[in-house]
Design goal:
The chain is α+β, with helices and mostly antiparallel strands and 137 residues long. The protein has three helices and eight strands.
């Protein structure tokens, strides 16, 4: 009987610990957010960007999810086959407080230094309201 009570206490403590770790992990920002100026990107928006509308953005993680979705929808399929628009898998997050918008950029894949390789990185600017623009550049 005593072993059973100890086992139940250990299991309950493990469950509580896992829940606590989950809460701490979710509350810790996963992306470092840097500043950027929206006006620095107006030429790209006027010439290269594809316009989109998404749900309003709540935070950096939400902006990354929406940007990744837009990348896949807009640039993910070439001639019917999937082509990962962000093969480097790194993501940079920026925010312009004056314009209330996010800039999310991908990273180029690691390549052999001996190979002459040009890669266009995916970019998305998303306003907090959900207005979005994407381009490769």
């Amino acid at each position: 009987m005593r072993k059973r009570n100890v086992l139940i206490c250990v299991v309950l403590l493990l469950i509580f610990g896992c829940v606590l770790l989950g809460v701490i992990y979710r509350s810790t920002p996963r992306y470092e957010v840097s500043d950027f100026s929206y006006t620095d990107y107006t030429s790209q928006l006027n010439t290269l960007a594809v316009s989109h509308v998404v749900e309003p953005v709540e935070n950096a993680e939400d902006a990354v999810i929406k940007a990744t979705m837009l990348w896949n929808q807009t640039y993910g399929y070439v001639s019917g086959e999937y082509n990962d628009p962000n093969p480097g898998k790194g993501i940079s997050v920026y925010y312009d407080q004056r314009e209330n918008c996010w800039l999310i950029t991908g990273t180029p894949p690691k390549t052999n230094e001996d190979v002459d390789y040009v890669y266009s990185m995916p970019h998305v600017i998303i306003r907090d309201t959900g207005e979005a623009f994407s381009w490769m550049g």
